[in-house]
Design a protein that fits this description.
Length: about 250
């Protein structure tokens, strides 16, 4: 499918929903721009502002690099499509997202990826190690959930949200990475730092575990405290991310 294959919904939805659609489409294209997409698989979702528990997610079959605000599909908490559209969604994708959205009022945006480095670290017994500055900044924010197969079993939702607790980041064992945020900006910066930390760990461990330096305990504690300000960074980084998209892959906001 090419950009423009779906008629614009801008005049048919609220201003708040349109802004959410634009931000979500931007997240899809940013993930593709960084090479973190997985063909037509994995998902990013957003809650539609308003009293209804409605959410936006990608139409199954679209590549992330071609996502537009109007192409996104609106569903309810059970994954039922609640808008007029010829598209459909991947039910396995919404199992994870519906669980997090339902349990976490602050999880307005949820990003889930299957990157090479993210899966690589998620498959390592010790998980994310404090061997890089990024990892030290994030470690206290990362939860873990064991692999249970393709996310088609709704019973898994309770276990996933219990494992996540109040953390903003997660490594899904043998599966991938996940980040949530009150805003698209927060979710984006969270997944960016987590993916970068995973890539650095995979690179460092190429020398063998005996040749890797673990950050000193005092430095880990200090960096953990400094990492609490990472939310502020998102407000600075997001406008720049959108400008980069406008230069390199415009058209997400239609």
């Amino acid at each position: 499918m090419a950009d423009g294959a779906v008629a614009s919904l801008k005049s048919r939805v609220s201003e708040e929903e349109w802004r959410t659609r634009v931000d979500l489409a931007a997240l899809y294209r940013l993930v593709a721009l960084h090479g973190w997409d997985d063909m037509i698989f994995t998902h990013i979702s957003a809650r539609v502002p308003g009293p209804e528990h409605h959410f936006l997610i990608n139409p199954y079959g679209w590549y992330f690099e071609e996502m537009t605000a109007s192409a996104l599909v609106k569903v309810d908490l059970d994954g039922n499509i609640v808008q007029e559209t010829s598209s459909f969604i991947n039910p396995a994708g919404f199992t994870i997202h519906s669980a997090v959205h339902a349990a976490r009022e602050d999880a307005k945006f949820v990003i889930h990826l299957h990157t090479v480095n993210g899966v690589g670290v998620a498959a390592q017994k010790q998980g994310l190690l404090p061997i890089s500055q990024n990892a030290c900044l994030l470690q206290h924010q990362v939860a873990y959930h064991g692999y249970e197969g393709l996310a088609l079993n709704h019973d898994e939702r309770e276990r996933l949200v219990a494992d996540m607790g109040d953390k903003s980041l997660m490594l899904l064992r043998n599966h991938g990475t996940l980040a949530v945020g009150e805003t698209a900006a927060q979710a984006w910066v969270g997944i960016f730092f987590l993916e970068r930390a995973c890539a650095q760990q995979v690179a460092a461990l190429s020398a063998g575990p005996d040749n890797v330096l673990i950050a000193p305990d005092a430095a880990q504690a200090e960096t953990k405290e400094q990492g609490r300000g990472i939310g502020f960074i998102s407000s600075l980084a997001w406008p720049g991310a959108l400008r980069m998209l406008d230069r390199r892959n415009p058209g997400y906001d239609v």
